[in-house]
Amino acid sequence: MKTLTIKDLALTCELDRDAMARVRGGHGTMQQSHPLYPMPYYSPSYTSTIDVSQNLQQLQNVTNATANGSAFIDGVTANNNTSQFGQNNVLVAH
Predict the structure, then answer these.
(1) What Rg, from alpha-carbon coordinates, does the chain have?
(2) Which of 29, 31, 9, 28 is nearest to 20 (CA)?
(3) CA distances from 38 to 34, 60, 75 (A)
(4) What is the model's pTM?
């Protein structure tokens, strides 16, 4: 980040748009070491490679066992409520 500090102004002085447009320099009386012609413009180039390998493996064994012969007895119930969820995510932020 570049910062411009102007030290020769009064603290109460505000610069309007025209005055700010006339602010130049930063090198004082030092001669410029480069010629006064425009530099070539190069646009930035961004290259990104994303290689993602994910593996999600799940196994669920559910056994519901009741006493022998309970299928023939009144008032015996056995309930199993099972669920399973898996998720792989990739977030690419630039």
Answers:
(1) 37
(2) 9
(3) 10, 69, 93
(4) 0.34
**Encoded amino acid at 21, one letter:** A
Task: Give me the tens of pLDDT residue by residue for the chain, a chain 94 residues long.
Answer: 567 666 666 666 677 777 777 766 555 555 556 666 666 777 778 888 888 889 999 999 988 777 776 667 777 777 888 999 999 988 887 6
Per-residue HEC secondary structure of 18-82 comes to: HHHHCCCCCCCCCCCCCCCCCCCCCCCCCCCCCCCCCCCCCCCCCCCCCCCCHHHCCCCCCCCCC
Closest residue by Cα to residue 55 from 77, 83, 88: 88
